[in-house]
UniProtKB/TrEMBL annotation:
<dbReference type="InterPro" id="IPR002938">
    <property type="entry name" value="FAD-bd"/>
</dbReference>
<keyword id="KW-0560">Oxidoreductase</keyword>
<keyword id="KW-0503">Monooxygenase</keyword>
<dbReference type="Pfam" id="PF01494">
    <property type="entry name" value="FAD_binding_3"/>
</dbReference>
<feature type="domain" description="FAD-binding">
    <location>
        <begin position="127"/>
        <end position="310"/>
    </location>
</feature>
<dbReference type="InterPro" id="IPR036188">
    <property type="entry name" value="FAD/NAD-bd_sf"/>
</dbReference>
<dbReference type="InterPro" id="IPR050493">
    <property type="entry name" value="FAD-dep_Monooxygenase_BioMet"/>
</dbReference>
<protein>
    <submittedName>
        <fullName>FAD-dependent monooxygenase</fullName>
    </submittedName>
</protein>
<dbReference type="GO" id="GO:0004497">
    <property type="term" value="F:monooxygenase activity"/>
</dbReference>
Length: 354
């Protein structure tokens, strides 16, 4: 079926959903509270399933041109010793968030995105056959609020390039380094909240990063020394409790509005792209909007709920305050069960805090 749709949010999910619905013959309007698109940003890992979704949107080749392809990576100890090697059946394409958003936005017709038009609640949506709620973890269309993970993420980029993906696990904290896809190096840190000072000023943030990762191996030290404190993104991490449904009436929750997860699997943006394609497919097959939305909910809710649970576990294990022995044992257990879950997680053992 075809009809009219209002998409709330011009992030990755909203833009991808708009593109998918337009290709399926829908009339689409995107409402976004920001006055202009986001530029720049740290790297997002596009796993093979996400690249397949981008191919369905006729955008895969454009993203490949703006990305750095990687296959596998390493989890290290703070002294640089290899704790685990992780790999996959296909390449991960690392692309900056800004480049991915620009690719998606440029694929829409002029005027499809209404910048500076916030939607404050369900009653604020124009009349349409379908509403796609892609307005993030604090969605105004969802009754349940986020739940804290007890960790704080820092992220940014530094000049120069690296050729490998690494993540270093220490007591109560981790530090990741990846290519960024635009000639820079992407870095991220995840730290137990009690270890992080409440002062959010750039100077305090820089000092905290130096103290938290003092004495770690040369790769981490070089990145920390190059960090521009003014360019650091810092945020407390949360995820969503499992929802009974991603659909209410004519409204479909999508991406972080439906299944915001800890960043430790690097799957948030990927699953959002899969949501967008699955929604358009379900509506195309369904005889009406209600049937299409039931199909979408049935297809996307079970796998994303599993990923939310697994991401929460990895967030807790990777920043555990206990000794290295229990942490390393837990890591080996996760790596043991991951291959059996790969159809659901798409080889999700290289991470990035989107």
């Amino acid at each position: 079926m075809r009809g009219s749709a209002v998409v709330v949010g011009a992030g990755i999910g909203g833009l991808a959903a708009a593109r998918a619905l337009l290709l399926a013959g829908w009339r689409v309007q995107v409402r976004e509270r920001s006055d202009a698109p986001t530029t720049g940003g740290t790297a997002l890992g596009m796993w093979p399933q996400a690249m397949a979704a981008l191919d369905r949107l006729d955008l895969g080749d454009a993203v490949r041109l703006r990305s750095a392809a990687q296959r596998g990576g390493q989890i290290l100890r703070p002294d640089g010793a290899v704790l685990a090697r992780v790999g996959g059946r296909g390449s991960v394409h690392l692309v900056s968030r800004g480049d991915l958003l620009a690719t998606l936005a440029d694929s829409l017709p002029d005027g499809a995105i209404r910048w500076g038009h916030p939607v404050r609640g369900p009653a604020d949506v124009p009349e349409a056959d379908l509403v796609v709620a892609a307005d993030g973890i604090h969605s105004v269309f969802r009754p349940a609020g986020p739940r804290p993970l007890g960790t704080v993420a820092f992220r940014g980029t530094v000049p120069g390039t690296v050729s490998t993906v690494t993540e270093t696990w220490g007591r109560g904290r981790l530090f990741g380094i990846t290519p960024n896809g635009d000639g820079a190096t992407n870095w991220f840190a995840c730290v137990r909240a009690e270890r992080v000072p409440t002062d959010r000023s750039p100077g305090t943030t820089a000092a905290a990063l130096r103290e938290l990762f003092d004495g770690w191996h040369d790769g981490v030290a070089a990145v920390v020394d190059a960090v521009d404190p003014a360019g650091v993104d810092r945020r407390r991490l949360s995820d969503l409790p499992p929802l009974a449904t991603y659909v209410r009436g004519r409204v479909a929750l999508l991406g972080d509005a439906a299944h915001a997860m800890a960043p430790n699997l690097g799957r948030g943006a990927c699953e959002t792209l899969l949501d967008a394609v699955a929604l358009a497919d379900a509506l195309t097959v369904g005889q009406d909007v209600d049937e299409g939305l039931r199909r979408y909910d049935r297809d996307r809710r079970p796998p994303t709920r599993r990923l939310v649970r697994l991401a929460r576990v990895v967030n807790r294990v990777s920043t555990a305050e206990g000794g290295a022995g229990p942490r390393d044992l837990a890591l080996r257990g996760l790596l043991t069960v991951t291959p059996g879950r790969r159809r659901a997680t798409d080889e999700s053992t290289v991470r990035d805090p989107h």
